[in-house]
Design the sequence.
């Protein structure tokens, strides 16, 4: 098995600033339940037996990891959210035509107002659909 950290001999833990040691495990190929078990094994058999181990820093690291995971989930949810766009110019700068605007248009133009059957207005090109 190839040593995952062999190409990075000067890596330090982001939390405690202690030099990382090689486990000889290529963690990039481990997923799911096996990943969880491997992480626990590394923590129990390697990290916690290190004389420089500090339990409070492990708690801090777990909190940072949880915050990072939350931020990634929020970013992914925001990025994948559907954003409607103008069919004419493709701009996302659109707004829904209000009922008050439709009523005012009918009052000024009459029943032939073009806004009556439209729902959206593009702020970029002025198109309504």
Sequence:
């Amino acid at each position: 098995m190839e040593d995952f950290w062999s190409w990075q001999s000067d890596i330090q833990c982001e939390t405690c600033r202690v030099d990382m040691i090689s486990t000889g495990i290529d963690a990039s190929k481990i997923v799911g339940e096996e990943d969880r078990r491997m992480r626990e094994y590394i923590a129990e058999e390697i990290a916690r037996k290190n004389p420089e181990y500090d339990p409070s820093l492990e708690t801090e690291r777990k909190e940072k990891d949880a915050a990072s995971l939350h931020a990634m989930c929020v970013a992914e949810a925001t990025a994948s959210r559907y954003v409607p766009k103008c069919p004419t110019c493709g701009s996302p700068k659109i707004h829904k035509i209000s009922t008050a605007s439709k009523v005012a248009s009918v009052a000024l133009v009459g029943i032939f107002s073009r806004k009556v059957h439209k729902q959206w207005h593009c702020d970029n090109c002025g198109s309504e659909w």
Remarks:
- The first helix runs from residue 32 to 47.
- The chain has three helices and two strands.
- The CA atoms of residues 7 and 99 lie 64 Å apart.
- The beta strands are 94-96, 120-122.
